[in-house]
Amino acid sequence: MRPLIGISCCQKPFGIFATPNHAASDTYIRAVRGPVAGTPVLLPAAGEDLSSELLPHLDGLILTGSRSNVWPGHYEGPPHAEGTPEDLQRDATTLPLIRAAIAAGVPLLAICRGMQELNVALGGSLDQRIQDLPGRMDHSTPSDQPVPRVRTGKAHAVRIESAGALAGAITAESRRAARLAVNSLHNQGVQRLAPRLVAEAWAPDGTIEAVRVEGAHAFALGVQWHPEYDWERDIDSRAIFEAFGRAAAAHRAARSGALAQAAE
């Protein structure tokens, strides 16, 4: 059986009555069915800690990107600018889930908002509008570009730590070059790095673009860009998902072995 991969959902209004729905982009489902070689399990933004109920059944966890941002109260930041989308229901579900997954050794891949959640969950803080800071690039979505080009086009290169988890996941050619071209679709980013996180990639303006969890017992990587948009044509994006998939398969094998032993 394929490893079960939890995919974090957002709570979003839907339809003429703005009924709350739990949603995740199809791009994550296709990545899980493709290079991860897993079975996707959508995790609702229930607004409560479900980690004890969910984690015993999961072999990996993907923290998805989203237009919403982590509520600043979780990192003692100033209030968001008016109109900034938030999702407190998701925060209440994912932040404890992240801490529990790391403690339980469940492989984790955090993407964009997911990487920001990872940083906040472990005690870090965020810059809320990178484009407003002196000397920093605009990492947000360009409004004048076609959607497919924005999602898959390479906005800038990132410099990579040559001996980190990210370097170990990507192709040998990119590892030797110690750089990677990535898309860019975010306003927020790491301000104060959480104590347990180690930076693994940086944009030209110094923005942290990838992190790993130091001392984690399993694959635990965060990337600020969106490999789920272009894994079908970008070999490094595919390689990141494949590395996560191998870790999830190993976790499933170990979990199945433990369950079989307990049943004897």
From TrEMBL:
This is Gamma-glutamyl-gamma-aminobutyrate hydrolase family protein. GO terms for molecular function: hydrolase activity. Transmembrane segments: none annotated. Keywords: Hydrolase.
